[in-house]
Write a structure and sequence with these properties.
Length: 172
Amino acid sequence: MEEKRRGTKETQSYQHIKHTFEPVCDEHSEILILGSLPSVKSREQGFYYGHPRNRFWKVLAALFGCAEPVSVEEKKNMLLAHRVAIWDVIDSCDICGSSDSSIRNVIPADISRVLAAAPIKHIYANGRTAGQLYRKWVQPITGREIMDLPSTSPANAAMSLERLIEAWREIL
């Protein structure tokens, strides 16, 4: 059942989206960073934070003092070398494009898979929406706290790269 939603310039349709990427983690991962759901661009590329203006990879590279990764393999290697796991809170939902504010009918991801596979010490949300969704759908299951960090999304354009890097120092 498809429903229309008024956008600022056009009418967008809700789509049911199923998350298709596996989490990135290994038995050494101590930090888990959770987004809400991959954007349209990320889904097209088949990997996390694929929008060219998303600053996730720039922020982490700056924090870790390394070159910004380009390929999926380089991104995975950087994360694992620094004991970072990534995944998303949502397994499936209905959404208009990449708009977090349109998310509904959420089925949460089974975050306990990552928590069982890795010695996660801290969980961070990439943006307020991921944090809110985690608290509503996942925290009652895991019993684990999450700390919200500012979103690296291009939708958070008001926050400069420098301010993002400073805020994200928390993960170190």
